[in-house]
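Archive entry: two folds, one per protein. Generate the first.
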Amino acid sequence: MIRAEQLTLSYRDGQRRLPVLKGISIHINRGEWVALTGANGCGKSSLIRTFNGLKIPTGGSLSAAGLDLRSPGNRTAVKQHIQLVFQNPEAQTIGSTPFEDIAFGLENRGLSREAMLAQIEKVLHQVGLTHKAEADVATLSGGERQRLAVACCLALETEMIIFDEVTSMLDPAGRRDILELARKLWEQGTTVLWVTQRMEELAESPRVAVMSQGKILYDGDTRTLFYSSGLPDALGWPSAPAVRIGQLLQAKGWPLHSLPLTEKDLEAVL
């Protein structure tokens, strides 16, 4: 789905060029769930915006959904295959109601009114907003706004959704709802790139890529990251309670594959 090789990106600041991405190589297969993490300013947002053509790499190679993003025409075409849900839920609605917001993205596809209505009804049901179809978007909660943004992606029959720290502005219930929705879509075949700085969300991901200063420091399975890589301590990450207990078990000789990452894992161990 995504194939980046030695990807670079820099911005011009007067006479200087400031490097943002420094030789990024990452492959994401169709149907994968990958979490991307790193401190603010590490290059996460710049990287994901190259994946759907919002930013143009300075060097290296990048293909997305089989399209070479060095071609200007492909940067527009790739947006149907790869959609981005932004951090701020208030910054991504255009219509005055959920119905209008979803319809906006469908109007340029040449669908008949009957097909468009059916698609809107389908995606509203998928994200649990059928009862809010004609509500003023200003009355929606932050979590409902994020689900509406997901519905707009689904309406375009996207193959991959990039969630850019979408839970950072939500309360615990809203965070859990959007994470469960993303997981359900993943189980149905959607490729998911989940960008987060929350340790509990990383712990639930089968694969994690860690960025720092424009480079990828780690890309692999989650247990190895938390228990063997040394990166969480080196980067000053707080340990989740389940991982702290797992570290005690690791010191007692427990094998890596049985160490807990989540509260559910910990319940099974206990």
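Generate the second and append.
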Amino acid sequence: MKHQGFAKKSLIALAVVGAFSGSAFAADSVQLYGIIDMGVGHFTGIAPSNTTAAPGSTASYTGLMSGVVAGSRIGLKGTEDLGGGLKAIFKAETGFCPAGTNQTGAGTSGYCTGGSFMGRTTMLGLQGSFGTVQMGRYFTSMFTNEINYDPFQAGFTGAYSNFSLGIFGLNGDAIGSLLRSNQTITYISPSLAGLTVRADYSFNTGAATDPINTAGNKTTMWSLDGNYAIGAATVGANYTKVSNITVNASGANTGAYKVWQAFGSYDLGVAKLMGIYERGTADYYSGNDSSWLVGTTVPLGAGMIMASYGQYSSSLSNTVALSKSTAKQYAIGYSYNLSKRTMLYTSYAHINNDSAAVDRLGTALAVNTATNSNAGVTGQGSSGFAVGILHSF
């Protein structure tokens, strides 16, 4: 009798939950989604984490990664029809570490990507014939282009983000990265004869724990992005400016970092060609930094071959003029779709760092995945190889 009573109560509870869910979501489209990506990666030529290591020494690492192609995540997204062609849209997404957090260069957040709970993407907006207006925390337009016009889509071991200005520009001394922005409002236009325009403004791109920097100025960002598609070709440009950042020796938060970005692709059918170019300048700095990539994807049955070559260079200096330092990367990879939701993959990439420091902090580049961020060693090469599986749901 005890078990029968428990079963009866359980059925009643399920009925109540079902009735509540039906009334709450009757007019809505709500989807639970996610990615679980795990692969074994092997890296050489990375900077040792031991601060007592001899200058110029390198280390190697082999481990199971919580996201080689893409950061593992889980989220909710949905729409509500408000009538008259107007919709409310939302998305809330958090990263997680299916292989554990002891991953080289993955930081200390315990979320592997995003930095905090629901830290990857949190967005609410309205969508209609006028386009889309949204707000929250999400990828910048600059990084979105790096995903769309990189054969490796900012993942694998051959990602453009290993040396792009979206990740590496003024890394450490100013803004950390232009990957995601906080407190952002965005307008995205509908397609106008193939032209789509996006405008972003961030009231404060800084960390939540430091909303106002030491000079009392918030670090703000705005960007304007245009993408034009005609037939098999797409071309576009982006301008991004981050203001009130620390870029001079006095520590005054009055400078700005500005990046121009151009991108394009052409689909030949048997292969797709693509490329990106970025150039950045900073107040109180002489010189500039730049990066570029050319690449291709080649469909092969249920799989795809990816290949790219790119370069990062910098002469930015807030002290004395520097000779332009350079890092070069070549990469190749292959993915195979077991189904619409499950993919096997492998990739290899190598970076050559020249004998000069790559950025103002004396940090060189290294090959990484979508979820780790090792540093390289000046004058040394860095390589990365990975093989794994990705499942989306």
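Annotation attached to the second fold: Residues 45 and 382 are 4 Å apart (CA to CA). The chain has one domain: 63-392.
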